[in-house]
Amino acid sequence: MGVHAEDLLNKELSQIPPGSGGLIIQPYWTPELMLKDARGAIIGFNDTHTRIHIYRAIIEGINFALMDGIERIEHKTKTPITRVMVAGGGSQSDEICQITADMLGRPVCRVQTHETSGLGAAILGFTGIGEFSSLTEAVKSMVQHKDVFTPDTKNNSVYRKLYEQVYKNMYPALKGLYKATNGIFDEAEL
Fold it and tell me: Which domains does the chain have, with CATH numbers?
């Protein structure tokens, strides 16, 4: 058939409204050191949810985690992040980039290549050999914005409420259950 499954799923994302009908995913699939007992979680299932709801909720869950990271960076650096650059797998989808912009409430800029590791190495290399006087100059010269996705304020309002009222409360509410689950599996040596 020649069509990737992700392409088919991405085309259906717009059929599901922001918030995936109340389906919220906490993407702690690989817990960070500070939250060593954390696990991934899905809340809000009901009989109206479909595979596209789940797919969109996964995309939204990853973006909720990104919102949390941006919030931490801004707090620590006292510097607002006014736009986000994206590259790689998920960024190849216009639908995912738009959801990301809507959730972050900032423009999302997709760069000209999804091979950004190579681009980063080239930037460092050219700066290292003196082709550019600084990394800033090299980035300005070598990184091109392919597309810019502007946030929809109505969608952002929904996402901000879900983030503040639900997502940020998920880990504290589930922390004891994560610890109990991990304890059971540690004891059973499974």
Answer: 5-79+160-188 (3.30.420.40)
